[in-house]
């Protein structure tokens, strides 16, 4: 039989041929052969589906997630919910594709139906709540509450709640210390901190719920998430940045034809900025007055990019809504593309961001700190500088773009290739451990006083203005994305880079230890440099080795010596 199967593989490579050949076999052989053929088909289909999913463009992924969100509802649930009864009840309105539970001010569930008709059917069965001594705003959103009559039995199994918050630094340190190599630590860090599929779905759903409010005024508008929510570098707990996209409305209104035509009568504003401010002001008031679960609404209309800021309690997200900020969306696509090109990019970015947050180089509060976006661009620039380069320049991505990729926004050429298969990368086999160490060495000695960072050209350029840190905006090339960073914060960053580079050069710190943090976990420990503050500018140049490092290395040497001594005494007893 083994020979027979060997012949089959040689002469019937097409699965269709295998099916036909199978008909002429003995019954028992036919069963085994059919099973093998089915397994091969399933494996082939799975690989094909995976390849198709990985090759999807940024725009295709965003559109798919937007459609999923439009078929979804967010439901506040009782704490001890019977999952089976809950799903059975909702299934009366249509097929459910997927659902999950999470905690935010109580138990919540996201349920995605297979069609929008199911949402319409569900809405017909929903009531406006009766409230005493108050009046309910009769806005019928897809944010719902489940009322369970009577007491619930605790005999049924509880649903699994998906985690929506990041672990603490102490938890991360403990988790990393259990890994065998530093490369494994950085991969583990990425898997622990990255946005889950459920968390991303929830972000798109919150945008869709907000769109239901804005749609009352602009029925054809779209609210899209951008930044960390979609660029593949988002961390659990990060804010949701949104764009109120009105371009679709303008695009459908630019149809030209011969003969008679009609135009909408519209209000006119003094400038596009004035119109944006007016629109966001109205949307902000609607969110505040009519948006269930939206609290702490602030309309910050005088900022360079006007926005509405609020907290969405049912999801636990802090949200920022801007309008027509298409360049920011294109920047998200660019980072997404870079993250897809090489499997080392995302772990390196997550590691640098985690390290920066642990040492207060970045902050959730606006100020003079380096932002996560700036740090990510710095990692991309560093990877462009490797020999051979790991990532292509932005100019190269523009050269590879096809006619359908052409994109000009407000006079800025934002064209980049969308088809990743057109990009040919050079062979660079550096480990994550080596890349992280060289990142710290690179920026610990970078000439920030005279040079700027430019990922479009992939090389240092003379600073066009006297700011502490100059990182050219990838698309709006006259802007500096790090203009907010002052000299003190940059000095702290450089000092910490030098300290971390020195620490990684000491081989003792890279040896696995069960008693103390090692490898990348050791880089997250408090540093003397972190507290240097403004006074460091008046002190002599900081030495890379702080007392913390010396103590840590001494303890590792002592423990290493104790281990050797124990082994020696054990051998002597033998």
UniProtKB/TrEMBL annotation:
GO molecular function, one term: metal ion binding
Superkingdom of the organism of origin: Eukaryota
Naturally occurring in which organism (per UniProt): Cyprinus carpio (Common carp)
PAP-associated domain: residues covered: 434-478
Protein name per the record: Mitochondrial poly(A) polymerase
GO CC term, one of those recorded: mitochondrion
InterPro entries: MTPAP-like_central (IPR054708), NT_sf (IPR043519), PAP_assoc (IPR002058), RL (IPR041252)
Cofactor (UniProt): Mg(2+); Mn(2+)
SUPFAM superfamilies xref list: Nucleotidyltransferase, PAP/OAS1 substrate-binding domain
Signal peptide interval: none
Poly(A) RNA polymerase mitochondrial-like central palm domain span: 183-339
